[in-house]
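User: Sequence in, structure out. Go.
Assistant: Echoing your sequence, followed by the structure tokens.
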Amino acid sequence: MRTEAQSASETRERAALAPRPHRVVQRVRETRSSVTLILAPVEAEEALPPGRPGQFNMVWAPGVGEVPISFSAIDDSGLQIHTIRAVGPVSRKLCAVRPGDVVGLRGPFGSTWPVDAARGRDLIIVGCGIGLAPVRPVIHSVLADRDAFGDVSLIVGARKADDLLFREELDGWWQRREIRVRTIVDQPSDDWRGNIGVVTKELQRIDFDPDRTQVIACGPEIMMKFVAEHLIDRGLNPGDIAVSMERNMQCAIGQCGHCQLRGYFICTDGPVFAWPRIQPLMEVREL
């Protein structure tokens, strides 16, 4: 016979697996392959809790499937904000929706960026490609309470200038000078006047105190590996580096096993990990 606690747990699991309908209220084209969707619950009682920086929702395209998408901004009014790059059938379908269309959401899930741990310290934020989207809420948190943080540097990398997300916002952050913004691309266009290369090249230009610096990085796994190794070589404590993993998450509640990485489930133990926890597993090929 099931106990009352078991029945309650099963009810919560069923709720976590049932997408809640959300309507597209705004669609913003970011790059040729990326859009930001602002979503509102179709019914007020179906509203999801607000996420926290680093967490994700499972976003469902009716008739196609669902994918994990990190929050690219946090809204306390009930809106859910996600920036999506079209790379597969589900994400392509989601990138093609229009205002008024309905998608499904489950969440929020996962661990968070160590924003509170960074208070009173210097902060280096690295976002490469679509990896800028999950760290964007951290930048918003810093700017909303700027005096709570020391020096803040943001390094943004992309393959091409046309792949840079949030271009107007990047320009605004740079002009306000409240944080140091550095952009770098691998393949410059004829009109690109910025830096050329990989993000570790920009890191070499940053002076930091290893004893008072927190690092947050998101992007391709190889990039995060090189970033961590570079900073550790310069004296940074590995425990002060946080990265976000993105593997094959399907259930988001640690039941299906698709995102298992040795002893971890990326969906429940991550996606944000301190570097010492995840570094030994970074040699495992992506699922």
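User: And one key feature?
Assistant: The first strand starts at residue 20 and ends at 31.
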